UniProtKB/TrEMBL annotation:
Residues 33-87 form the Acetyl-coenzyme A synthetase N-terminal domain. Its EC number is 6.2.1.1. GO terms for molecular function: acetate-CoA ligase activity; ATP binding. This is acetate--CoA ligase. GO terms for biological process: acetyl-CoA biosynthetic process. SUPFAM superfamilies: Acetyl-CoA synthetase-like.
């Protein structure tokens, strides 16, 4: 392990949002705040709503009702709201904020667009009027098949404003994946970009949607956003975004809804079977994302929030709702971050004064492995917080970013949660010491624990299953139209406990770490081994840019470890045998990989996560499942060929 630790200055602590919040309630330490927030979850969520000024049209009479059981809580009883009031309306009524940028967008070609809060509100009202004109109303599901462009946020709020259900779709989805989610949601309409550019190549989004709609009879209307060029040959069911906004109808009032009204369906990318639509509500998603962005990422009015993500992942909606509920500027980047080279990320920070920068470990490994120097040529002084989620860090990449790039002046808020959580289970806070690769501790309001196979709390640094003992507002209300699947997925392993599917452990000082997904854990001769443990050893080698470890069937051990690695630029030697010895020395001979294989690339999602299940399927020649979210599908036959060739 590394000895790097972020240590906040007293000045940093004094300025932090979470410090203000704690002192407002007589609490001076983050650990004290964590303890109070789960000792009385009603107190915490009510206090967060008040502190952040979140708007309820009709006040609630109680915070939570558990009479239907822990898996089916009701929140903010008796109140009514719409997220648009907290994210837009209150800011256009604030003269200090109304003229500030709500959105800044930059595409791969370098074109920049800006919208103030006042302009965003105007666009949202026009879009909601046009949507009402084509028959979209309360409870109607509408797909958003858009890259990270301003229209994504405008459409998001316009649909929320009229009480429709938002169905975000990953901009790189193939027709089958689009169709499966539209069919499951019963979407009545889809808002689709004609396309987007990635590494200079056009992604044909409209054409993919046309193919998908052949099996989606529920869709009555398609709205085409002319992102690349004017739309031609419109079908009978299509209208352009510009024509939709040209509506002369009155947008009508904001629809105020029950707190449990569905805001969006966030689909998880399962390996097989029908995708799961996690149901998020207006009140739940708003309160969780607003508090997360304010307290974990220390964003407020005047901040600039930028997360490298996509609308189809939960971080897309979280970025929109979380930044605007705090009066900040949302910086959207559309395209690949290695165009024209891997300094693009640092250029974005400098050009737009980013204060909260969200990245993935894989993205940073790629940038670091590219050979680019530490970006001294770019002014990164605006950054106050670095955010990260989705996969475990390796110490070398973590320290390169935290210590070399940002000179130990910025905390790394490495948080762990998921689509169904609506935010984080675990997160460090910028006011506390944060060791390398740590996820800190329980997020405020989250009563999480680590348990063994019998649901008993583990002691010391023992690895166990991550669970949550109490509900939280953004907990998915269910799987869309399939409550049995919801109960089986999250509540059936340990009755009364939410099982998240992550392995975690604590160090002797009480800092928490994610050991990887429990379905990424290998059982080698009766001993459990997380993929992340092997990968951490592999990526510590100077020749290794990134790595993936998988378990494969083995007659003697039950499972054997196979390791795959990608070399840094310019490396010609094959270090595979040396890497095998390193794993053996670090983890024990029984965990030494039976095969260590160098490959040109590893399959990754658009958000930069290595898809281990796809690596495993490619290695074994089995069905990899849904590949629509894979950014580089050409890596799969490459792995198959190399595995088969080497025997």
């Amino acid at each position: 392990m590394s000895d790097y630790v972020w240590t906040p200055t007293q000045e940093y602590v004094e300025k932090a949002n979470v410090t203000r919040f704690g002192r407002r309630h007589g609490i001076d330490s983050i650990d004290g705040l964590r303890a109070r927030s789960v000792a009385d979850i009603s107190w915490y969520w009510d206090a967060a709503v008040t502190d952040l000024g979140l708007v309820f049209d009709k006040p609630y009479s109680a915070v939570v009702d558990l009479s239907a059981g822990i898996a089916h809580p009701e929140w903010f009883i008796g109140g009514t709201l719409n997220i648009v009031d907290s994210c837009i309306t209150r800011w256009i009524n604030d003269p200090e904020v109304a003229g500030r940028d709500a959105i800044v967008h930059e595409n791969e070609a370098g074109a920049i667009r800006r919208l103030t809060y006042r302009e965003l509100n105007s666009e949202v009202e026009r879009a909601s009027a046009g949507l009402r004109d084509i028959g979209i109303g309360i409870g109607d599901a509408v797909g958003l098949f858009l890259p990270l462009i301003p229209e994504a946020a405008i459409a998001y709020y316009a649909l929320a404003r009229i009480g429709a259900v938002i169905v975000p779709l990953f901009s790189g989805f193939a027709p089958y994946a689009i169709a499966s989610r539209i069919q499951d949601s019963g979407a009545k309409a889809v808002i689709c970009a004609d396309g987007t550019l990635r590494r200079g190549k056009k992604v044909e989004m409209r054409a993919h949607l046309h193919e998908a709609l052949a099996t989606c009879p529920s869709v009555e209307n398609v709205i085409i956003v002319e992102n690349l060029s004017p739309a031609t040959d419109l079908r009978d069911d299509e209208v352009t975004w510009a024509d939709l906004l040209a509506s002369e109808s009155d947008p009508g009032p904001i629809v105020h809804l029950d707190p449990s009204a569905t805001l969006l369906l966030a689909y998880t990318s399962g390996t097989t079977g029908r995708p799961k639509g996690a149901v998020h509500t207006h009140a739940g998603f708003l309160t969780k994302t607003a508090s997360e962005v304010a307290y974990s990422f220390d964003v407020s009015v005047g901040g600039v929030f930028c997360w490298v993500t996509d609308m189809g992942w939960i971080m897309g909606p979280l970025s929109i709702t979380g930044s605007h509920s705090n009066g900040a500027t949302l910086m959207l980047y559309e395209g690949a971050l290695d165009v024209p080279d891997t300094t693009r990320l640092w250029q974005l920070v400098q050009r737009h004064g980013v204060t909260m920068l969200g990245v993935s470990p894989t993205l940073i490994r790629v940038i670091r492995a590219s050979g680019s120097a530490v970006p001294d040529a770019n002014d990164l002084s605006s950054v106050r917080v670095i955010g990260s989620t989705g996969e475990p860090w390796d110490p070398d990449s973590y320290e390169w970013l935290a210590s070399k790039v940002f000179r130990a002046l910025v905390p790394m808020i490495n948080f762990s949660g998921g689509t169904e959580v609506g935010g984080s289970f675990l997160a460090p806070y910028p006011v506390e010491p944060i060791p390398s690769c740590s996820v800190g501790g329980p997020s405020l309001g989250m009563d999480v624990d680590i348990v063994d196979d019998k649901a008993q709390p583990v002691s010391g640094s023992t690895v166990g299953e991550l669970v949550c003992r109490q509900p939280w507002p953004a907990m998915t209300r269910s799987v869309w139209q399939d409550d049995q699947r919801y109960m089986e997925s999250y509540w059936s392993t340990f009755p009364g406990l939410w099982r998240h599917g992550d392995f975690a452990h604590r160090d002797p000082q009480g800092h928490w770490y994610i050991s990887g997904r429990s379905d990424d854990v290998m059982n080698v001769a009766g001993k459990r081994l997380a993929s992340a443990e092997v990968e951490e050893v592999l990526t510590s080698h100077a020749d290794v840019a990134e790595a993936a470890a998988i378990g494969v069937p083995d007659a003697k051990k039950g499972e054997a470890v196979w390791a795959f690695w990608v070399a840094r630029p310019g490396v010609t030697a094959d270090a595979s045998e040396e890497l095998r010895a390193m794993v053996s020395d670090a983890l024990g001979k029984s965990f030494a990989p039976s095969r260590v294989i160098r490959v040109p690339q590893l399959p990754k999602t658009m958000s930069g996560k290595i898809a281990r299940r796809v690596v495993r399927a490619a290695s074994l020649g089995t069905d990899p499942g849904d590949l629509s979210g894979i950014d580089n599908p050409e890596s799969i036959p490459e792995i198959r060929r190399i595995v088969d060739t080497r025997g």
